[in-house]
Specification:
Layout lengths: L1 H26 L5 E2 L11 E2 L2 H19 L7 H22 L6 H17 L6 E4 L3 E4 L4 H18 L6 H19 L5 H19 L8 H21 L9 H5 L1 H16 L12 H7 L4 H22 L12 H20 L7
Antiparallel strand pairs: 1-2, 3-4
Helix pairs in contact: 1-2, 1-7, 2-3, 2-7, 2-8, 3-4, 3-8, 4-5, 5-8, 5-10, 6-7, 6-8, 6-12, 7-8, 10-13, 11-13
């Protein structure tokens, strides 16, 4: 019976991968182009609508799960809230890709609105486990924590989508590891969402892997960031797996570190933190001479190592789980020091 279920899930994943591939191929011909500018990492116009294929494929899989996954489903209110908020993020981001607005405030307001929709439908952090302190109820603090987590991850993923294949490839790896972790923890819902997300992103990645023929645009990057953040809350509080809140931040630790480090560095340098720039560590690494492929493969390897760390984390007692982050913190600090020093020597940090 288990073997039959696994075969059905694999077949479902393959079909979604095929759908994503076909839709991305179709997006290549729509003519929605990302024009190069002084902040771009590409030198010629490239279609910018690949994220539409990711979103459409994901919700096709979500609809099938909604109608045929009776035993796997979480509460209907949670399902509706996730769908409404996710579609809202995708719609506003698509409007931005089409040039309807360029204001960061509007985008931020839309992200907060989507996060508020999510918590209004009951998808909220309720408990937290910390070393020494143990597990405690968050109470009303769970609401602002959930909103800030959702908005932060939506933007972090968007910020890290700046080189061919990097964000999409890391998203595929994270979906794979989070799916495995939640399956090992007894998931009946989140692990299915993970392979739906994996198949959706993988079909796009075929056309985005260096050298990219299409980009995912804000519609793809913001939706994926939102989706991973929301799935982490669902896995921790509403899925049968009750997966640790630490797993998703660990899997995306390199993204979180890069975005946070760059934000703080630019803030202290008096630079405009809301304006587009090429000062992220991964962008500086590329400007130092490492190819798109090289930077992306480096981040894929780091993501996989963090995935192994996540598998180790779930085998540890709760008070000690936070210490899994230690080697990744040391590595990221060393990586940042090396990249910043080399970039400073070559004059890459000015007006970045």
């Amino acid at each position: 019976m288990a073997a039959l279920a696994l075969a059905n899930h694999l077949l479902f994943g393959v079909l979604l991968f095929g759908l994503s591939t076909a839709l991305t191929w179709g997006m290549l011909r729509l003519g929605v182009m990302a024009m190069p500018n002084r902040r771009s990492s590409h030198d010629w116009p490239i279609p910018n609508s690949g994220g539409v294929a990711i979103v459409l494929t994901f919700f096709a899989g979500f609809a099938v799960l909604l109608y045929f996954g009776d035993e796997a489903l979480i509460g209907s209110g949670h399902m509706i809230g996730f769908a409404v908020a996710g579609l809202g993020v995708a719609a506003i981001s698509l409007a931005d890709d089409l040039g309807q607005f360029r204001s960061f405030r509007i985008k931020l307001a839309a992200q907060f609105s989507a996060a508020l929709v999510l918590v209004a439908f009951g998808i909220v952090f309720q408990t937290m486990s910390l070393p020494v302190a143990g597990t405690f109820d968050l109470g009303w603090w769970g609401y602002p924590m959930t909103v800030l987590w959702i908005v932060a991850m939506t933007n972090i993923f968007n910020f890290m989508d700046g080189l061919d294949g990097l964000a999409g490839g890391c998203g595929v790896i994270v979906a794979l590891f989070f799916g495995v972790v939640t399956a090992l923890e007894g998931s009946h819902f989140v692990y299915i969402l993970c392979y739906v997300l994996l198949a959706s992103a993988l079909g796009f990645l075929i056309f985005n892997f260096p050298t990219a023929r299409i980009f995912m645009g804000d519609v793809g990057s913001q939706f994926l960031g939102f989706g991973f953040a929301a799935i982490a809350v669902i896995a921790a509080e509403y899925d049968t797996s009750r997966t640790s809140l630490l797993i998703m931040p660990l899997l995306f630790f390199h993204f979180i570190f890069d975005a946070t480090f760059t934000f703080i560095r630019r803030l202290f340098r008096g630079q405009h933190v809301t304006q587009a720039h090429r000062g992220h560590l991964y962008q500086l690494m590329n400007q130092l001479g490492v190819s798109h492929l090289g930077v992306s493969l480096f981040h894929f390897a780091v993501t996989a190592l963090q995935g192994i760390g996540a598998l180790a984390l779930i085998e540890m007692d709760t008070p000690y789980r936070i210490f899994v982050f230690a080697p990744f913190v040391v590595f990221q600090v060393a990586y940042a020091v090396v990249v910043i020093r080399m970039s400073s020597t070559r004059g890459l940090l000015y007006d970045r």
